[in-house]
Amino acid sequence: MKQIYVQAQADHIASLFKGTPLAAIEELVWNALDADAREVKVDLVTNPLGAVEAVRVSDDGTGIDVLRADQTFGNLGGSWKRAGKGTPTGGRRLHGRQGRGRFKAFALGQNVEWRTTVRVGEELLSYRLSGAAERPGVFDLEDAPAGFATGTEVYVTNVRATVDSLLDAAETVQNLAAKFALYLKSYPNVRIYFNGLPVTPVIVQKQVTDYALTLPSGAEAKLEVIEWKRRFVGSGRLVFAGTDGFQLHEQPSGVRAGEGHSFTAYLVSPRFPALAAENALVMDELNPEVRQYLYAAKKALKAHFLAFGSETSAFEREWADRIAAFSVDERKALLALVKKSLRTR
Q1: Can you give the residue ranges of every domain in the chain?
Q2: pTM of the shown model
Q3: What's the CATH class of domain 2-167?
């Protein structure tokens, strides 16, 4: 058995273990997609009482290269993806470039194993990498019996209590569908499953509306508004994406859709990858160019929901908040006052 040591301080590595279970799942799925996986399966292993005992994320990608294990797991901030223009065989857009994704698995549990099979020449090589949260930055590497096909399985045990939040399958699938919507549209041969349920926007979306935007500068963008069948925690977001469907940044849209409406708005432009590389998207309205895109997107969103009669005015929202704080007697008195006012007209 060989040990791999990450070149970074233990407390810095441990800080990367933080995050929500959903964010950790998203990162593990991205890692699989970056390895050219065509099928990714996320499964929760539960005990007889229904609590989560383990999390398994498996894929049919190219696997983790055993010849580069030291580089893959031993370097923080030096991922091979930084220099890569696309995935190894499919040429898809790469997500991870900081070499931090593997540490997000520890947001799910204390112990993580990577069981992987990679093709080297005509031979399939399999091995097992394991790490523990109590030993940040130390990974054990050992050979394993050869598998029948390339791919990787991430198996997380000693899970954290917060992982039970993923048991709401409808909510989790909805969040994952929103996160990977444009990617799955760009790469229709990719399949993602959560506990056997397909993660696809087609099943959970109500309708899709596209708008062509033209900025005062003459720049153009597309706004794709996906309205979902059900409300979920991550709805109401504005997502910046490149033309390849790769999400670069997201933030609250700042637009009230009204009661019963749940949506995600995807703002797409070939300009966004360059702005993301300059860290301009995270500056929000402080960047003049980004501000123009935001203004155009919000204007289109407000018009979209007004067309359906669901965008509430500032006056309506103000009074809704005020009335919500009234007691029953105060509401009755207000209603009587309104009726009296109507009779005197």
Answers
A1: 2-167, 171-307, 314-343
A2: 0.79
A3: alpha beta
